[in-house]
Amino acid sequence: MIPGSREMASLLLFPDSGMHGSLTLSRSVRVAGVGLHSGRHVTAALHPAETGRGIVFFRTDVGAVIPAVAEEAARFDHATSLGRPGREVGTVEHLLSALVGSGIHDLLVEVDGPELPILDGSAAPWIDAIHHAGLARLRDAALPFSPAAPLSVSGPHGKRIEIRPARDLRITYTIDFPHPAIGRQSVTVVVTPESYARHLAPARTFGFLAEYEALKAHGLARGASAENCIVIGEDRVENGSLRFPDEFVRHKALDLIGDLALVGRPVLGHVVAQRAGHALHAALAQRLREEMLDEGAADDPAVAGASASS
Questions:
Q1: pLDDT greater at residue 76 or residue 60
Q2: How far apart are CA 284 and CA 279, in angstroms?
């Protein structure tokens, strides 16, 4: 457990190798579990896809095709949801994060309900599923995008996120919660498949026990339990030991990587986030996507993905 009042020192994670080339799965794999917010049992099937298709969700129960791009971002109530009401797919950030962290940018995801399974609250089970299916290198590499100049988005209460040009994907994330179990934490990581799987993927989502009933009253957290999130009580973590002393900020970095998938291309840059969240993550992804499309960096994978799945 993290000591209450001290400030967590910045952790620097700089691995030796860079991101691999463009990948997809070697074969299909299925993952099932409970949705964090809906409480419904859902099954997701991950299928290989061709270069340029992008990451595309297909709701098999309602026949909805939903490309994983910023234009589809709909709600950010303690998760990222894509698509229109009644035809949306929610809590996509952990799977998207695992895909980006593994170097996968082309995949078809079939899901039979409104939300992906939360599993243990981290991206580690998705990484396990990816490893079980195996990786296949695509013939053509996905074209990465890096902004020509820094871009930033700000929110209330000191929230801010910025991306600076860089030759790799580097995340610096800082959080500051007025709670003795969390406090101020910061992490910096250069994202490669190795660093992601070791340092970020196991970090679980977290929730405050004091907010649980209010969230349920608003139709959220109906599937939350001590098995799929870190439960924070009045002054401590209530359900066992943390996987990392700074697991909270590592999970925020995990979420950010998933939300950056909404750019629709691999992103290169140093992203610096201060007390940000899904809405700011998605706003930055939208800014990057607009710049990418304005510059004509490549054909839009959302169009190819949607037409191929229709």
A1: 60
A2: 9
* pLDDT reported for residue 5: 28
Q: How many whole angstroms separate alpha carbon 157 and alpha carbon 189?
A: 25
- Is the confidence at residue 20, as pLDDT, over 60? no
Rg (CA), the chain: 18
Domains and CATH numbers, the chain: 11-309 (3.30.1700.10)
Q: What is the pLDDT of residues 166-219, one digit of tens each?
A: 999 999 999 999 999 999 999 999 999 999 999 999 999 999 999 888 888 777
pLDDT band at 309 (very low <50, low <70, confident <90, very high): very low
Using DSSP bridges, classify how beta strands 29-34 and 41-48 pair: parallel, antiparallel or unpaired: antiparallel
Using a 10 angstrom Cβ sphere, with 0-12 exposed, 13-18 middle and 19 or more buried, the burial of residue 293 is: middle
Catalytic residues: 278
pTM: 0.88
Please report the DSSP string for the chain in residue order. Answer: ---SSSPPPPEEE--SS-----EEESS-EEEEEEBTTT--EEEEEEEE--TT--EEEEETTTTEEEESSGGGEEE-SSS-EESSTTS-BB--HHHHHHHHHHTB--EEEEESSSB-B-TTSSSHHHHHHHHHH-EEE-SSPPPPB--SS-EEEE-STT-EEEEE--SSEEEEEEEEESSTTTEEEEEEEE--HHHIIIIITTPPPEEEGGGHHHHHHTT--TT--TTTSEEE-SSSBSSS--SSTTHHHHHHHHHHHHHHGGGSS-B-EEEEEES--HHHHHHHHHHHHHHHHHTT-S--HHHHHHHHH-
